[in-house]
Specification:
Layout: E1 2-6, E2 13-18, H1 23-35, E3 43-45, E4 51-54, H2 71-74, H3 76-83, H4 100-117
Antiparallel strand pairs: 1-2, 3-4
Length: 120
């Protein structure tokens, strides 16, 4: 990931700042969250629809960040529901009963873990 740095006085380019974002941290959080709920699967996508984390495939390298595995384009109504929002969203497929309560608890756990990792 890189960001252009501009001079605030005249908008001339001063350079580029580059950082590497390790997705293994995100994958670890999803593994922990999914481990707390029986039969759960967590899939995390970037804004383009590429997989960042996929607990169902154990984050298979052949699927992660593969442009041919694009769930935004091929995910059907479930992904359309998640991407249909103006901001980050999620879609819940309830195949085993009252999963909504467990999902909400898992989402809150992930948020707490992410705050801890950011030092807040």
């Amino acid at each position: 990931m890189s960001v252009r740095i501009d001079d605030p006085t005249n908008n001339d380019s001063l350079g580029v700042m580059k950082t590497v974002l390790g997705i293994t941290l995100i994958q670890g959080v999803t593994d922990t969250a999914a481990g707390g709920i029986a039969k759960s699967k967590i899939t995390v996508l970037n804004d383009a629809g590429r997989l960042i984390a996929d607990t169902d495939s154990e984050h298979a390298r052949r699927r992660i960040m593969n442009e041919k595995v694009n769930l935004k384009a091929t995910g059907g109504p479930i992904m359309a529901a998640a991407y249909g929002k103006d901001q980050s969203g999620y879609a819940l497929v309830d195949e085993v009963g009252d999963l909504a309560r467990d999902f909400e608890r898992m989402r809150e756990s992930v948020e707490v873990a992410m705050r801890r990792m950011r030092g807040g």
